[in-house]
Design brief:
mainly beta, 2 domains, 4-stranded antiparallel sheet, 15 strands, about 15% helix, binds zinc ion
Length: about 190
């Protein structure tokens, strides 16, 4: 392991394509993959779950043909598209409109703790003092290990906050280095 860590400017999303978790049904190892649709698959109990991550939003602005006031309707975070949406004006006039949808890659939330999508617990997670150390998968774990091991940590030109810049203090703290590396070793053997 190198003594020097140069930020590769990865963001957490680099590691969300495939995440290791505890199966919510049988408690054994399961995998969540994300390519727009989240899928959980457990090869032990054959549990299979899926959830759409693409979400839709629309905004409608129309002048009411009866009273000439503007009619507004906004919606976001929709999992399905409806072809027509009914809108009623305060004057009582109502009509069906065809919305134009915008599509968003709708993370309900970034995984940011030991719990992640489908309310599962991350496989590579363990409490450390009053904190929880966690990684989404083995590649993420190794990336953190490299960071923690390094005596010299260098930044790199970047245009956004990188994963290592947003790490909690207990991971950044060099006084926790040896204990954290021990913890990582036990996780690597799982
Ligand atoms: Zn299972
Ligand atoms: Zn009206």
């Amino acid at each position: 392991m190198e003594n020097r860590f140069k930020d590769k400017n990865y963001s957490l999303l680099r590691f969300t394509k495939k995440m290791d978790v505890y199966c919510p049904d049988c408690g054994k190892h399961a995998i969540i993959t994300d390519n727009g649709i989240l899928k959980l698959h457990c090869e032990h109990c054959k549990l299979f779950l899926r959830k759409k991550l693409m979400m839709y939003s629309y905004r409608i602005r129309h002048r009411c043909p009866q009273c000439d006031k503007m009619i507004y309707k906004d919606a976001c975070c929709l999992e399905e598209k409806e072809t027509f949406v009914s809108i009623e004006c305060k004057c009582g006039f109502s009509r069906m409109y065809k919305p134009t949808y915008k599509c968003e890659h709708g993370y309900y939330q970034k995984p940011n703790s030991e719990y992640t999508y489908f309310d599962t617990k991350l496989w590579y997670s363990k409490s450390f003092k009053n904190e929880i150390f966690w990684a989404l998968n083995m590649e993420h774990l190794h990336y953190l290990k490299h960071y923690i091991t390094a005596k010299l940590r260098e930044r790199n030109n970047r245009e956004y906050m990188t994963l290592v810049e947003t790490l909690p203090d207990f991971i950044k703290s060099k006084k926790n280095r040896l204990e954290l590396l021990k913890l990582i070793e036990t996780l690597e053997k799982k």
